[in-house]
Amino acid sequence: MGTSQSLSDAARRGAIPAGVNVGRNERLVSAGIGSALVLFGLRRRSLLGLALATLGAELVRRGATGHCYAYDALGDNRAHGPVRPLMMEHTVRVARDPRDLYGWWRRLENLPLVMPHLQSVRVFDDGRSHWKATLFGRRLSWDATIVTDIENELIGWRSLAGSDVEHSGSVAFRPVEEGKATNVTLTLAYHLPGGLAGKALGAVAGGALEKQIARDLDEFRRLMEGEIRAGLESGGRRRPEIWQ
Question: Cα 194 to chain center, whole Å?
Fold first, then answer.
């Protein structure tokens, strides 16, 4: 059983308020990752936990206000970038230890097994990774790097400069049922180029993206719980349904 939500600011164009220097997509990701860090930090009940919670609170503030002090110092303003971010979030409960799920997800090359819009993810020794995907009929690629890595709890990544698409994501693992199961929350954010934005907006309005990511994470659950083996149900990786 899972819950999902999709957000798009494409229909809410308007003037950028004074003091805002962070783009919409970046604000959404900052708030999402910050909230996760606050929860993880408070649960640790240690100095490290306090540091994580403090960092998380700053990210939440950054996301809520749209203001970054570091950008101020650099004279940088990223609030006027693309205004059609696409963000998806879904949570699924998996009857496995979070250590097992974290270990599987930390090997990013596994992700195309449960995300059919991803063609491949290649991981390099320096921590970078190269992603290839098909989004709404267009083939895209980008380089990414891990930005947050809390063992058995949270993984966050973002695309690097020069990529075809601005992308970021995170996956959080929260033990439940006295450690017998794990709530896995996946957050994906895309800044889509060109005409892909309008297609994405239509898919969001129709609820298609929510259903697709729910199916993807349910397949992850089934794979982790041993209900299926990767690639054996349909003779290979599933064809993307709404991404093409």
Answer: 21
